Amino acid sequence: MPRTGTCVAGDLKKRLNNHDRETRNEIDPADQTRVECRHQRDLSSRSINARGVWDRAEDAWMNDDVDELDAVWDSVIEDLGSDYDAYTNISSVGWAA
User: Fold this and answer.
1) Number of Cβ atoms within 10 Å of the Cβ of 24
2) What does the pLDDT profile of the chain (97 residues) look like in tens digits?
3) Which residues are within 8 A (CB) of 73 and not within 5 positions of it... i.e. 6 or more apart?
4) Which of 1, 18, 30, 77 is most buried, by CB atoms within 10 Å?
5) Of 49, 74, 71, which is closest to residue 60 (Cα–Cα)?
6) How far is residue 32's CA from residue 55's CA, in Å, rounded to a whole number?
7) Which of helix, strand or coil describes residue 96?
8) Sign for the pseudo-dihedral over CA of 94, 25, 78, 56
9) Is 77 exposed, middle or buried (0-12, 13-18, 19+ CB in 10 A)?
10) Cα angle vertex 90, ends 94, 6, to 5°?
11) Cα–Cα distance for residue pair 18/47, rounded to 1 Å
């Protein structure tokens, strides 16, 4: 009998790959409540389209491969332009498909 996580990952791959089309994603900025006020940045949620990363991301997630997840994340956010740096260090990723 397959592990529940394996079933979930397989379902997510199917949904997020979206028949090989892009998937629209919302990125919420990091919680800055512990950052001194003078160092906080005015960050808003961003929406981006991602394509061709979901198999890599979910395989890395299932294998606890943090380095690969980091590489996938960098490839997703590279098109954010000047805001890129504001979203490079994250504490979590949530998938809802």
Assistant:
1) 9
2) 445 556 666 777 777 777 777 777 778 777 788 889 998 888 888 888 887 888 888 888 888 999 998 898 888 888 777 777 777 777 666 666 5
3) 88, 90, 93
4) 77
5) 71
6) 31
7) coil
8) positive
9) buried
10) 35
11) 17
